[in-house]
Design brief:
about 300 residues; alpha+beta
């Protein structure tokens, strides 16, 4: 690859090029560095002048510097999966190769004995660990960040709590750091020990507790159908609504309305709340729930004997 051809390659790699990818000889590489045609980031990894620096640029530079098979991991992989992270995070790289490479500025190289789930993925055209491995590893370096990361994974349908629980079981062993914070995050995103389908259900459950509303049952089976919440001792059912945040599309939206009609026809009272109502107007939402309970609490539930 000639210097004139580097632009095309670097454009899809965040402005970064390696000696190996460039096809240059070492002498040509050194001449390009000396001439300012390339700006060295790590040994044999450089960026093109004029390219904007970014966390993603630092991450791919670290991956290329560590070499074949290296993956962005831990905090870096979390960022690539869309988890909000600070721009000054160090670059985390996992490699299964032994080596004694020189210390890389701003890069933490991990050589784990636990190699489970090290299946390469690509995010922003950067090889990285998959989401479940990322969440375990994140707990090893930033335990307090795991709960929010799990919330992001659930909200964006990257993973569900069942998959995360299976991940904890698979990685649990004496001395495996990161499992504890992920287990705690799973508990935080569960209701009565059962995994929620969405962050909206979690938000609703927390709202019920925060405003000391009457106790609810999570995911009861009513007339052969699973509903989100039932206010215990009443015919009032609380359903969490939202196409994106509750995994609904237009077909699911219409199906929910048909189900509501079936429940109402048999005597249940279905009250639906949107993501916005639960998260941005919790006080008003709590008031509506209390009003519904007060209105219908004296009415026997359809399943009452």
């Amino acid at each position: 690859m000639h210097l004139a051809s580097l632009d095309d390659w670097a454009r899809t790699h965040h402005g970064i090029v390696s000696l190996h990818a460039s096809g240059l000889s070492r002498s040509s590489w050194y001449r390009a560095i000396a001439a300012g045609s390339l700006i060295q980031v790590h040994p044999f990894v450089a960026r093109l002048p004029g390219t904007a620096t970014s966390p993603e640029q630092r991450i791919i530079a670290g991956v290329l510097a560590v070499g074949d098979g290296a993956l962005a991991s831990h905090r870096s992989a979390a960022r690539l999966w869309g988890v909000p992270r600070t721009d000054d995070d160090p670059v985390d790289i996992i490699t299964t190769r032994s080596g004694t490479e020189s210390r890389l500025d701003g890069v933490v190289v991990h050589r784990p004995s636990d190699r489970l789930h090290l299946i390469p993925q690509r995010r922003s055209n950067i090889p990285c660990t998959n989401i479940v491995r990322t969440l375990v590893d994140l707990g090893a370096v930033d335990p307090t960040g795991v709960e929010d990361a799990v919330g992001h994974a659930l909200a964006t349908d990257l993973a569900n709590l069942g998959a995360l629980h299976a991940t904890v079981m698979a990685h649990s062993r004496r001395g495996r750091s990161g499992v504890g914070p992920l287990r705690a995050a799973i508990e935080a995103w569960s209701i009565d020990g059962r995994p929620a389908d969405s962050i909206l259900e979690i938000a609703m459950h927390r709202l019920v507790e925060r405003y000391r509303l009457p106790p609810v049952e999570f995911h009861p089976i009513i007339d052969g159908r699973e509903v989100d919440f039932r206010v215990i001792g009443t015919p009032v059912l609380l359903e969490c609504d939202g196409w994106i945040f509750h995994g609904r599309d237009r077909v699911g939206f219409e199906r929910d309305r048909d189900r509501d009609g079936d429940l109402i026809s048999t005597g249940w009272v279905v009250v639906r709340f949107s993501y916005r109502a639960v998260t941005t107007r919790p006080g008003r939402t709590a008031e509506r729930i209390r009003e519904a309970v007060d209105r219908w609490s004296s009415t026997p539930s359809p399943d009452a004997e």
